[in-house]
Amino acid sequence: MQPSIHTADHAHQAATVRAGKAGDVLAVVSQSGPTVSFFDAASDQLLDTVEVLAEPHEICFDPTQRLLWCASTYNSGYYNANSGRRSEVTVIDADSRRIVEVVDLAPEHAPHGLALDPVRGRLYVSVEGSESRPGGVVVIDTTTRRPIGRIDTGAPGPHWFVISPDGRAGYASNKEAPFVSVVDLERGELTAKVEVPGSEGLAISADGSRVFVAAPHGAFGGRTSDDPPAGIRVIDTGTASITGILSTENAVLPVHVTTTGKLLVGELRVTPEGRQEAGRLTVFSVDGQERLGSIEVGQAPLTITSSADGALGYVSCLVSSTVDVIELDTMRRLARLDIATRGETGAHGLAYIPKA
């Protein structure tokens, strides 16, 4: 079965709002597909589907090279529940939608989080550790597409990774280690550990002063009464310390900051019996950190991105294998993309590609 779309009510209104997206494209990873699907951002129509290596998780767009980087993390399965770890990152031409190269990071393994510094031409890829070495971040030259370094993060399983706007600092979330790793990207070394009770997605403010990190570690089986309060820990990057918590009703996995200063978080909703219910997109303001609204999305939201102008939010949901398209000013769902290929599910990584 090919990916498809269900358009929300008032489709003509949505078309008007999205007319400015003509030529833009949304890339969506199906981790069990395993595919990357491309949708027209104005009409939501499927343009193409590219088959990639098993278990693709995250994807990142390089606007300078017009390339997509897609990390294949495991042979099958998930973090701490897989049949073995892969070592490849697939490079895809964003315009022709063809595979350019497969970069093998071996002996590094389980590449996942991707963060781009387009000014310096560096891609940072988080990788899991081994018995002899902690997890870390592999540094790739985006021109030669070859690894040129590695930075240890002091934890076995760094998962998501973000960098400061000036390209000098990086922050790795660690699902099980009780801290967020702070690394100096110029010196290539770990500089601080910010105490956080296990962490998931994270995002950084446009001015680089704050990092927003989902904690504690989200569990698909649901939360227990012993778990720390769910929400977003706010890190002051100047002091590498927690300055506040944005509370949520449920555990959060993905976190994203838009170009318009909105903080988007995806809440995982699970019944006491472990059954996945509809997830929730909750929106806060970055500056005031007040709650602006929320809306139901698919089951198990796992990745969030937004359009270049910050008007639309996209929420990929693993269990329902859908992507919800949300108008952020009105918190109205405009469409739901079904990301199921050949009966497989698992919508995960997202990349918004502005037209050339």
Automatic annotation (TrEMBL):
<keyword id="KW-0238">DNA-binding</keyword>
<dbReference type="GO" id="GO:0003677">
    <property type="term" value="F:DNA binding"/>
</dbReference>
<dbReference type="InterPro" id="IPR011045">
    <property type="entry name" value="N2O_reductase_N"/>
</dbReference>
<dbReference type="InterPro" id="IPR015943">
    <property type="entry name" value="WD40/YVTN_repeat-like_dom_sf"/>
</dbReference>
<dbReference type="InterPro" id="IPR051200">
    <property type="entry name" value="Host-pathogen_enzymatic-act"/>
</dbReference>
<protein>
    <submittedName>
        <fullName>DNA-binding beta-propeller fold protein YncE</fullName>
    </submittedName>
</protein>
